[in-house]
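=== RUN LOG ===
request id: a7f3
mode: sequence -> structure
chains: 1
length: 203
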Amino acid sequence: MKKILITGSTGFLGSRLALYYKDKYELLLPTHSELNVSREEAVRAYVEEHRPDIVLHCAALSNTWYCEQHPEESHRVNVQGTVKLAKACKLIGAKFIFMLTTQVFSFTKQRSYDVCVSSDYLCKGDKVLFIDDFLANGNAAKGMIDLVKKAGAELVGMGFLIEKAFQHGGDELRDMGIHVESLAIIESLDNCQIKIKEDGHNR
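=== RESULT ===
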């Protein structure tokens, strides 16, 4: 049975991956004290001792506010820690998979969500066309832009079924130089009446 090391296994994503794979692979689920990714010697020693076949790297400082307040710690864990673990995996020939993450604020639910994409599915050099149902404030679209940048991929455009022009997300995306197309653009919902923009999709 192949052996998988999951870092950050007590976190939101890591715990769910551990639950999903628990009957399929032999799992290594180290605590932070057992595997501190910011310490290179400790990382290499752990990986060489346990020799996983696959490493799913989910450990990170994910709170955006905290990272902004502690940039050096954030860089040490999220950037340097990832590099240290990748180097250790290369030494033993283990497959290294890390997660691209961003935070998206939901205007509807008034809370932030972590959005994660495996590096296996969004890679450097990829050309990305983002398609979604609604465009309002553009927070989900901006989250995707962040993920695409982190992956080193190229965003070629964004398409939406319905755009709520009165919430200005489309204006902000276009001001960023992004090609945006919407099948229908709603100008207003005043007095429970839907007013559709009649001319072109691009503005």
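=== NOTES ===
The CA atoms of residues 130 and 158 lie 5 Å apart.
The chain has a mean pLDDT of 88.
=== END ===
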